[in-house]
Specification:
Helix content: 10-25%
Number of helices: 9
Shape: globular
Strand content: 25-35%
Structural class: alpha+beta
Length: 447
């Protein structure tokens, strides 16, 4: 067997972890990402040579690993909208997609973009500064987006003489705050990205720390994005009716399974019409199969001839979401133009786009202390707030806490198609935050 084939087989059996990094400016985020890529041997030789050359020309003896990611930062400064830098790397144990998000307050919306599909968020803190306002903001965004795992990376431990009490105090403060928001799992790791302590290799300077390195934790954290365990949902993208001599009566509904699994013979409901039928067949990659699960792209055939079009949702008859025209949600406003009460918008949910009107903006969230600013009238760029939207047609919307895929939506400007707002239907923070209790289990974190 060739090395290439072995590698391909190895990758096919490894899992994929999507994770996002967040931290204040100068916390060493670029250096941490650079160190992860460098020490996990995920950097091409010519990239490394370019970094070494640039570092030498600046008079630095060791390569400045921050330069591995800072090319994209330079692009940002030139006004190119690569707001979130996505990096792909792999180890023999797992594949990774890293969303590197900017640290400034005015880029809250970028962190929302990067963390919305993440299963884990790495929040970086400078050991000298401890938990700052921006740290709390990043913890709040991770909690709002229902990110199941949060890593607190206490960086620059070399600048505080690798002192355990410094790390312990920061870890305790952050963990208490994040747990109060309902974040279900928090792991604190003391690191020095510059020196490489506890990033990929264990530190020789912190024998008091017995936990995993950052990479070890990333490789072993349970990836709970098992979409097959969620409520089954199939948004229809396309209706296939060849009407050829070979397939005169074929009618199939094509799309990607958003969550859960579907089986031939299963009773299903089509929303928003509420009509019911059973699954007569499932076609995947040109072959008939008995079962299909998320995130496969398939064509579903039904036993009955029902009027179905793009944007309809197929769900199990005994587990269908409620259909509504009144959407209450937490949103992050991402556009430069404000969102105002009374504004006419388009709401895009899975494959369905409907006309809507912003009926109310009950509150704006102050992320620093999590207080609610009542009736702000409008939301401006980077604001997070509660909105009530009335749609022209009914939507089959899940609560975001139950399904990140079918509980999220976008508000769009009908005039030019600009994305205005990213929305998460239902309650803002996890129930644990409201009750002050720790989550009983991971049930409400399925997505």
């Amino acid at each position: 067997m060739s090395t290439h084939t072995q590698h391909a087989e190895q990758l096919s059996t490894t899992t994929l972890l999507r994770f996002a990094t967040a931290g204040s400016v100068d916390d060493g985020k670029s250096t941490l990402v650079g160190r992860l890529l460098h020490d996990s041997k995920s950097v091409l030789t010519d990239q490394l040579e370019a970094v070494e050359h640039a570092s030498r020309s600046r008079g630095q003896e060791a390569p400045d690993l921050a330069l591995l990611t800072d090319g994209l930062r330079a692009e940002r400064e030139q006004g190119i909208t690569i707001d979130v830098a996505y990096r792909y790397f792999a180890t023999p144990r797992r594949r990774f997609i890293l969303a590197d998000t900017p640290g400034h307050v005015q880029y809250t919306r970028n962190m929302v973009t990067g963390a919305s599909t993440a299963e884990l968020a790495v929040v970086l803190v400078d050991a000298r500064n401890g938990v700052v306002e921006q740290t709390r903001r990043h913890a709040a965004v991770a909690a709002l987006l229902r990110v199941p795992h949060v890593v607190l990376a206490v960086n620059k431990m070399d600048l505080v003489d690798y002192a355990e009490p410094v790390f312990a105090a920061i870890a305790e403060e952050f963990t208490a705050y994040a747990a109060s928001l309902g974040v279900p799992e928090i792991t604190a790791i003391p690191i020095s990205a510059l020196a490489g302590d506890n990033v990929v290799e264990p530190s020789a300077h912190m024998d008091w720390y017995g936990g995993p390195t950052v990479l070890e934790h990333l490789e072993t954290v349970p990836v709970s994005h098992d979409l097959t365990a969620c409520h089954a949902r199939f948004p229809v993208q396309y209706v296939i009716r060849p009407q050829t001599a070979e397939h005169p009566d074929y009618r199939g509904y094509a799309g990607q399974i958003a969550a859960g699994a579907f089986r031939v013979g299963e009773a299903v409901t089509v929303l928003p019409s509420g009509r019911t039928s059973t699954i007569a067949g499932i076609d995947a990659l040109g072959e008939s199969v008995d079962i299909a699960w998320a995130p496969q792209s398939v064509t579903i055939r039904l036993a009955d001839d029902i009027d179905i079009s793009r944007g309809d949702l197929i769900a199990p008859a005994d587990d269908a979401p409620a259909v509504t025209r009144d959407v209450e949600a937490t949103v992050c406003h991402v556009a430069d133009q404000p969102l105002s009460v009374g504004q006419r918008v388009l709401l895009k949910h899975t494959t369905r786009t409907v006309k809507a009107i912003v009926k109310d903006i009950p509150s704006r969230l102050t992320l620093d202390d999590l207080s609610q600013h009542p009736a702000p009238g409008q939301l401006v760029a980077n604001d997070i707030g509660r909105v009530v939207v009335r749609t022209a047609e009914p939507l089959a919307l899940d609560a975001y806490a139950d399904s990140r895929r079918t509980g999220s939506f976008l508000l769009i400007d009908p005039a030019d198609g600009t994305t205005l707002t990213a929305g998460m239907a239902g309650a803002s923070f996890a129930a644990a935050a409201e009750s002050g209790a720790a989550p009983a289990d991971d049930a409400e974190w399925d997505f």
